[in-house]
């Protein structure tokens, strides 16, 4: 199989697979459909074997384009980001296939257990609050910060503690989790249609920090629920993961009803999954330090 890097008029990249070479164009499978791409929009071709060199990943692909002459630096940097996303896509696929051999956990505790690293709270927010938060989030201008763990069609918006609805949310959080917690950040995580599965990751290495992840609408398996690996909130599990990025461990999909939430240690391995619907998946995330 031959992979094709397509560059558009804005110097952004897409990955496709080659179907047929023609005189002045190529027939390419990209984003779920066949497209005819003129040759001047084909940036790079590489074979399946190149994709399998996971040890070097995007660095190998990044070096590959240096053989082309007189490429503007902007294009090189865009390609670097694109190649990194290819590596993440391939890694996530291998991780998914590895986890298929492991048992799926159907239920998690409703109070904290150190051997799990996560628990569930039902009805954390009422429906009216969820609707109000969705409207607030969708009305905000983009102010996303890049995160390595995020990928194509994923957005993270950092929310202002001084906004009235966020003040109301903070009061609810502290009423339910305790007034002594130190809130560090509140974000909206938007997983758009056709988003890819993420590689497994931990958010931080702090053992006294947790994240509260609230579903602002029902989230089923097709909407890209977060996948957690219970019990991986420790250094030994992370060291094993870092050896080759593959983990065999029971897993849990956080399918949630509107207003329900999952609380987890930020050291727990987890990932967002692909959104197979035509709707945005919107989750509110609050990260806090324990007293």
TrEMBL record:
Alphabetized Gene3D superfamilies for the sequence: q2cbj1_9rhob like domain
Name this protein carries in UniProt: Phytanoyl-CoA dioxygenase
């Amino acid at each position: 199989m031959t992979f094709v890097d397509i560059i558009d008029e804005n110097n952004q990249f897409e990955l496709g697979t080659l179907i047929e070479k023609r005189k002045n164009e190529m027939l390419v499978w990209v984003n779920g459909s066949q497209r005819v791409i003129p040759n001047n929009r084909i940036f790079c071709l590489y074979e399946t074997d190149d994709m399998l060199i996971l040890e070097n990943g995007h660095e190998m692909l990044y070096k590959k384009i240096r053989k082309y002459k007189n490429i503007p630096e902007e294009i090189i940097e865009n390609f670097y980001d694109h190649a990194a996303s290819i590596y993440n896509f391939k890694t996530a696929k291998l991780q998914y296939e590895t986890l298929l051999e492991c048992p799926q956990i159907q239920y998690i505790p409703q109070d904290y257990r150190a051997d799990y690293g996560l628990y569930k709270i039902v009805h954390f927010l009422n429906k009216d609050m969820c609707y109000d938060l969705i409207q607030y989030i969708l009305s905000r201008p983009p102010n996303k910060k890049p995160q390595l763990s995020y990928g194509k069609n994923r957005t993270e918006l950092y929310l202002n503690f001084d906004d009235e609805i966020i003040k109301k949310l903070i009061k609810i959080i502290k009423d339910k989790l305790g007034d002594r917690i130190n809130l560090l950040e509140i974000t909206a995580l938007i997983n758009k249609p056709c988003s890819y599965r993420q590689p497994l990751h931990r958010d931080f290495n702090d053992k006294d920090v947790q994240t509260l992840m609230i579903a602002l609408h029902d989230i089923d398996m097709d909407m890209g629920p977060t996948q957690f690996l219970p019990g991986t909130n420790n250094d030994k599990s992370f060291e094993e993961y870092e050896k080759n990025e593959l983990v065999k461990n029971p897993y849990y999909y956080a399918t949630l009803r509107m207003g329900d939430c999952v609380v987890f240690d930020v050291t727990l391995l987890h990932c967002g999954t692909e959104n197979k619907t035509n709707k945005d998946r919107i989750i509110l995330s609050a990260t806090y330090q324990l007293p």
